[in-house]
Structure formats: structure tokens, C-alpha cells
Amino acid sequence: MKNNIWLDGLRSVARVGETAVIAAKAGIKYATEKPSNAKLMRETFESLGSTYIKLGQFIASTPSLFPREYVEEFQGCLDQTPSLPFSYVQGVLDKEFAGRDLSEIFASIEEKPLASASIAQVHAAKLVTGEDVVIKVQKPGVETILYTDLNVLHWATKVLERVVPKVKFASLADIVDEIKTRMVREVDFIEEAQNIDDFVNYLNVSQNHAATAPKVYHQHSTRRVLTMQRLYGVPLTDFEVVRKVSKDPSQVLITAMNTWFGSLMLCKSFHADLHAGNLMLLEDGRIGFIDFGIVGQLKPEVWQACMAFMDALQRTDYNLMAQNMLGMGMTSHQIDTQVLADDLERLFSGVLLADPQQIMSSNPSDLNDIMMDMVAVGERHGIRFPRDFALLFKQMLYFDRFMRVLAPYTDIYADQRLQMGQDIDITSLLKH
Asked: How many domains does the chain have?
């Protein structure tokens, strides 16, 4: 135990030193090359690794809190990192399953990872009982680095507020606290396992046979190791394959969306990172939902207003959209709902009526532009969006883009197969 404390302490000291060196290099680069503040920050964050990469992704997904140039720049902050040698992964497994013989759990583990991100690495394996599984293994030292970085970040924010007052990082201390809460949860695989169980329970209760999520093997999982059923299929990003194996590609996404909207109402939290890479079309035709590390939560009253807002968006009722924005508790100002409705109509009419071919050929960053335009409309009226609502809305924009690629001339939010209102009949919602 004492050895672990000493090692963690040494890692913390080393991490502070590493951070200082990288920050000094960034200062030199700024003095000599004069890059934009946003670009320099992104490059520095990527050099600093896991914690700061996650922070960059937080900035990219939170246009309501950060300046536009930073949000746009951090769109390129990717979570994919070089893989670690299998010996490191083996070390984590030995430590997490101390006292147990790994050969009595796993018949085999593939040394080459299926994926490697900043926090964890995923390996294919087979249990001694014969089931094909994937093992999500937290990289060594991630937790120590996380807590050290967050402490440094807290100190740095105080300095930043003094040095760069023009940067609009509103309520910076609160933001750091929220980042800490979310990131600590992300490195706790027991919580991720609970998120999966919650989703699977929702599928079972609602008798949704059109979708699934991996079974969690709790007896072979810990805070740092998550063992799950391996799902076989293709990601929805593989559009050509999806078109080949599905008679109606649009139905694939409609099924995924109806399942997701149902989970918003019936689960404790919602999947907040449901890009197409985390959606799979399985060999048996079902939709597979994977990677529940990042989830969102909304207060019941905010959620009710969100659902009403999205229902109004579906029906292009801009006055009702404006009223429900107020119902979300996002402003303390007295505002003219008619003026707000007119602004929303100007924004969304162009988005909803745009030529699909034009949108297909545009840059993926246009989704973020739409989100930030909506934020800008809100700001003009003294409205600030909750982060989880921003995640919710951005997810809908992702769905819109996928549909326009899979089925270019389908107006997804006018499609009668899609139901997203708060008064939906659950039975009809889950029909395939």
C-alpha cells in the first residue's frame, strides 16, 4: 500500500514537471510563430495527453460556454492515441484480478488492440466458458494523471482569468468542477457497466427486439477493467456496407433513433456520445449500441421542456419552441417570445429546407455551426443552454447528417416513422 502511495506521488511530481515543460514549449512557440490562441491551446492540449484531450472535447461540445474560435478549433481534438504494448495491459489485468489465475477466466486474449483511446484500450478475448468478449482496459497511471491534471487545471484557471480576461470562460470554477465530475465517472468502469445495464433493462422492459447492447460480465469486471459481450457487425459510418445489407437504410437509422428517444424517457441517463461509430448494424439485423462511458442527465422539468421543444421543432412551431426555451429555466430575463420565435424560424427554416445534396457535400463542421448559431440566437435574448441540452441537440444534428447520407432525400424529422414527443406510446415507439 505504501509503495503505491509513493509511486502515485512520484507520478504526480513527474506529471507536474512534464506539464511545465510542455507549457514552456508552447510559450516559446507563441513567441516565435505567433499561432492563434485557439490553435496553440489545441496543440498544447494534445501534447499533454488524456485529461487535456478530454477537456478539448468538452470545449468542442460546449458552444454555450466557450468562444466560437475555440469550439471550432477543438473539433479536431481526437481521442484516438497510439496503442500501448500488450505487456502494459497484462500488468493492469494482473493487478485488477490479483489472486485469480487469468487463464481460469480468459481462454485467450488478442495482443493487438481493437481500439486505443486516451483513457483505455480495447482487446478481443474469449472466456474459458466459450463466449467471445471484448476487454476495455484502463491505461496504467490514468487516474493519477487525471487527478494531478485537474488540480493543475484548477490553479491554471485562476491564472487565466487574471491574464486573459477577454476570454469568455464564464463560471470557470464551476466548469472545472463539472469536468472533474464527468471525467472521474469516465474512468470508473463500474459506472459504465451500470449505464449499460440500465439501457439493457429498458430494452427488456419495453420489449424492444430491434436493438441491443453488450452483455456485461460483472464477475470479470472492475473499476479499471470492463469485460463485455463482443458484438459482430459494421458501424453505421460504413455507409456502403449498410446500403448493401439493408433493404431500407433509412429504417436502420429510424430504428436507432426511436430506440434512443425511448431511452431518454425510460433510462436514468442518456447516451451522450452516440456518433455513428458507436452504433452498429449487427449480422442479425439488430442495432447495437456500444460505449456508454459518456452519458448525459437532465432534470425532469428541463427534460419535459426539452421534449416539448423537440416536438415543436418536428412540427416547425417556432412560437412553441420559444416558449419551451423559457420553460427550460435557461434565462432570468423578460424576453419577447415572438421576437425569439422569429429568430428561431430564420435559423431553422434554412436548416430544415436545405437541399440534401448541398448538405451532403458540405463540411461536417456545419453541424457545429448550426449549434453555435442557435446558441448565438439564445445569447441575444439572454438565454444560456444547459450543457446536457447542448449534447442532446447536437445528437439530433448527428442523426440528421447520417440520414442525409444513408437516404439523401428523406426528411428525417418529418418522417412518420419517427416519434420523439413526450406523450409517445411506447409500444409504437419501438416498432421495427
From this structure: 2
